[in-house]
Design brief:
The chain has about 150 residues and is mainly α. It is built from five helices and no strands. It is a multi-pass membrane protein.
Length: about 150
């Protein structure tokens, strides 16, 4: 369909907010049904936290270990970024055929799909890094200061 200016305009069966709400419900249902992925993510975060905590054991208060502290911070950032992206990479390929079919049928826009997937993953993107960082922070003997923990 074209608008008043002659440009092509996509129309969908429902308003954007309804598309997002339906996709969000479906995404939450999928996450709930496939608990093994969530359990694996949690287990991965805990195991890597213990390994990093042991690798950088008690370096937080040692001024001579500044390079070790910097490398620990760098590893934390890389791990959290990698751990956040991997579930998307793993599950997107499984959902791709359904996504293409439903989008080409104009059931929902790609923006609504992306927003719903992002919103559904936000609680996990807060919870899992927190579960990871608490033991790492304590095991590496970083100064017990809430501001420094939140900066980490």
């Amino acid at each position: 369909r074209t608008n008043k200016r002659g440009k092509n305009e996509l129309s969908y069966g429902a308003p954007f907010h309804t598309q997002v709400a339906v996709l969000l419900r479906r995404t939450w249902r999928t996450i709930w049904r496939e608990q093994i992925l969530t359990t694996m993510r949690l287990t991965l975060h805990v195991c890597i936290a213990i390994l990093i905590g042991l690798l950088y054991w008690q370096i937080g208060d040692d001024a001579h270990a500044i390079y070790n502290n910097a490398s620990m911070l760098f590893f934390n950032h890389i791990f959290i970024l990698y751990a956040a992206m991997m579930p998307t990479f793993l599950t997107f390929n499984l959902e791709r055929k359904v996504l293409v079919r439903e989008h080409l049928n104009r059931w929902y826009s790609l923006k609504a799909y992306y927003l719903a997937k992002t919103l559904a993953d936000i609680p996990f993107q807060i919870f899992f890094p927190t579960v990871y960082l608490i033991p790492v922070y304590l095991m590496t003997n970083q100064p017990l200061c809430i501001e420094r923990f939140f900066m980490l």
